[in-house]
Amino acid sequence: MYNFNFSKYSPDNNEKSNFEKLFPLFTELLTYTNGDYNEAIQWLNELDKEYKLTDDEYGMGDFIEDLKAKGYIDENNQTGEIKITPKTEQSIRKRSLDEIFGKIKKSRSGNHQIFKTGKGDEINSETRPFIFGDTMEQIDFNTSIRNAQVNHGIEHFLINEDDLEIKETDFKTHTSTVLMIDISHSMILYGEDRITPAKKVAMALSELIKIKYPKDTLDILVFGDDAWTIQVKDLPYLQVGPYHTNTVAGLELAMELLRKRRNPNKQIFMITDGKPTCLKVGKNYYKNSFGIDRKIMNKCMSLATQCKKLKIPITTFMIASDPYLQNFVHEFTEANHGKAFFASLDKLGSFIFKDFESGKSKSMF
């Protein structure tokens, strides 16, 4: 007969600490305030007043001290200015990754696997005979010693070149990616905040590539009237400017960056809210914010077709639900035979995925 001893269940053992409860909200506010620590803390204080996030045992001052102690913020002793640290920037990116793509395990190697054997970095279960040029690290010693025993006996152990077996490895393809982010004024037009969802998608994609495909290369650019490159660490601080949408400049810079990469596998991710409205002709800017301008559209379609010929697929994340804005993305992605994710502003984690190469559509995330 079995005897069971029951103990009292204590939910407190599994509860998060006060810091762990507040920190996700803090990082979310940093995304909305473009990485401004002071503004984020002010908002957090206001939320604390309304929803009583802290208590007598753990106050907002304690949370700020924990942020300092854990290395999430850094205070300038001379000016008293407080800024978030690279550790916080990474936390924001990881939060966006979890929110949009779910939790993904870190990989030690590139993970674009193909079913070919040869000189690679992923060991499989197959072996082959030794050939000149193979290294010591590739030798399967267990199999090689067994071969030597079978071929020469065990009394006078001898192993030669014919006994050696080599561990087969799989090729893993590496990819060069350019991430394009629209920072034109339309990303906050009519009171709609489109830049925050765009930043979240950008941070999620950059963190996804960093964690899942660490051997890939990633270049990031932003485009408004012109286009220029930024670093991953700059993503939380992105702000919309008084710009039109020069998608052509962004695509031209993306293609230039990819031309410098020797990797044969290349792709572009573009995050935008819709149609291009600007084109640079010589030193002047040609602009038209009203409707679809065929002069600008034709140039965009030409670049999409060029990318298709160069085997550079473009995946577009459409951060708007307006049908007339989505029309450009449909035409553009169809010209490239690429892929598109259409998302509404109030459902960032819910995308409608459209593969223009296969003609298939489905709901994602």
Could you write a compact summary of the structure shown?
The chain is of the alpha/beta class and 365 residues long. The protein has helices at residues 18-32, 37-51, 60-69, 86-101, 141-152, 195-212, 247-259, 294-309, 323-336, and strands spanning 73-75, 82-84, 112-118, 122-129, 165-173, 175-182, 217-223, 227-230, 265-272, 278-281, 284-287, 314-319, 339-344, 347-355, 360-364.
Detailed description of the structure:
With 365 residues, the protein is an alpha/beta fold. The chain has three domains: 14-84; 113-172, no CATH class; 175-364, 3-Layer(aba) Sandwich (Rossmann fold). Helices cover 35% and strands 25% of the residues. The strands form four sheets. An eight-stranded mixed beta sheet has the order 8-7-6-9-12-13-14-15, sandwiched between helices. The longest helix is centred in the middle third of the chain and has 18 residues, at 195-212. It starts with 17 loop residues before the first helix and ends with a strand. Mean pLDDT is 84; it is low at 113-122.
If strands are numbered along the chain, what order do they take across the biggest sheet?
8-7-6-9-12-13-14-15
Task: State the helix count.
Answer: 9
The helix content is 25-40%
Structural class: alpha/beta
Question: How far is the first residue's CA from the last residue's CA?
Answer: 49 Å
